[in-house]
Amino acid sequence: MTANTMLEEIREANLTYLMLAQTMIREDKPQALYRLGVSDEVAGIIEALSPAQLVRVAATNQLVCRFSCNDEMVWGLLTSHGKDRQLAGVHVAILRSAEHAEAA
């Protein structure tokens, strides 16, 4: 992968993420704050971005999103291939909600 291709992929990921984030915030802000892992202030900024501003922000050479799962246990649950995948999802949600409560 060339540097230009990588930058284009980052820009595309940024734009997709920002558009999704904006939609989530407009439809259910409390749920979006939890799922996106952003503050109310940041959510307000994202929600207010015009289409032109979305494109400009997305054009940066840095990812504007990050992995919210920084825990080995969470990744283990997410990547488990057992028959209880739904149960693993519930466990991840419980662990993430505890992290969210501690951050607040």
Description of the molecule:
This protein folds into 2 domains: 1-66, Flagellar transcriptional activator fold, CATH 1.10.4000.10; 67-104. It starts with a helix and ends with a helix. It has helices at residues 3-27, 29-36, 40-48, 51-58, 72-79, 85-103. With 104 residues, it is an all-alpha fold. Helix 1 crosses helix 3 (40-48).
Specify the structural class.
mainly alpha
Overall morphology:
flat
CATH topology of the largest domain: Flagellar transcriptional activator fold
Helicity level: over 70%
Low confidence ranges: none
Largest sheet: none
Secondary-structure element order, N to C: HHHHHH
Search tags:
single chain; 104 residues; mainly alpha; Flagellar transcriptional activator fold
Short description:
The protein is built from 6 helices and no strands. By secondary structure, it is an all-alpha fold.
